[in-house]
Amino acid sequence: MPQTATDTVRRFYETVFQSGDVDTVKHFMAEDFVDHAPWPDQPPTRAGFEAGTLEMRAAFPDLAIEPIKLVEEDDKVAAVVRISGTQHGEFMGRKGSGRAFEIDAVDILRVKDGKLQEHWGVIDVAQMMAQLRISPAA
Known about the structure:
globular
C-alpha cells in the first residue's frame, strides 16, 4: 500500500522525536531539504536541521514532539504538535536547570516521493522560555 504524506510525517515524528533516533533524520529528508524556520545559527538545510535536533536533544534528553493533528492537502501536511522536554544540558547559554516545558507548535511539511522537502514552523518560544525561566534579555 502506498504511503501518504501524512504517513511519512507521522513516522518522522515517531522515529526522530518520540523514539529519539536522531540519526534517522537523513532517511526522512531529501538531500536538498529546505527549512524555512531554522533554529538560530543553523543553516536552512538538512544538515542544519540535524545539527539543531542534536543540540536540542543534548539540552533536553527527553525531548518529544507528539503530533496532535495532521491534515494533508496536495503535497503538504499541516501538523499541530506538542513539544516537551526537561532541560538537563545547556540551552541558550544556560546550564541545565532540571526545568520542564510543554508547548504547542505548528509545522507545515512538503513531502515528495516519501521524503520531506520543505519545512515551515511556528513555535511559541516566549512560552517555552517562560516555563524554563529564561529571560529574553539573557
